[in-house]
Amino acid sequence: MLKHRLTRSIGFILAASAVGVQNPAGAAGFSLPEASTAGLGTANAMVANPNETGAFPYNPAAMGFHDASSLSLGTIVIGPGFSVETASGEHDSQGADWLAGPMFQGMFRLNDQWRLGLGLTAPFGLETRWRDGTFPAVSGTVKLPVPPPLNPKVPRGNHPTASKLEILDFSPTATYRVTDDLSLSGGLDIYWAKTAQLDSTAGELRGDGEGTGLGFNLSALYRHGAWSLGGAFRSAATLALEGDYRALSPTLVALGRLAPTQEAELDLDLPWRLQIGVRYAVDDRLAVEFDVTRTGWSEFKELKIKGKNTGAPIFTDSNQWDDANAYRLGATYQLRPETQLRVGYAYDETGQGDDRFSARVPDNNRHLFSLGLAQALGQGYSLEAGYMYVVAQDRDYRGDTRYLPGGALNGTDALNGDYSMDAHLLGLELVKVF
Question: What is the pTM of this model?
Answer without folding.
Answer: 0.86
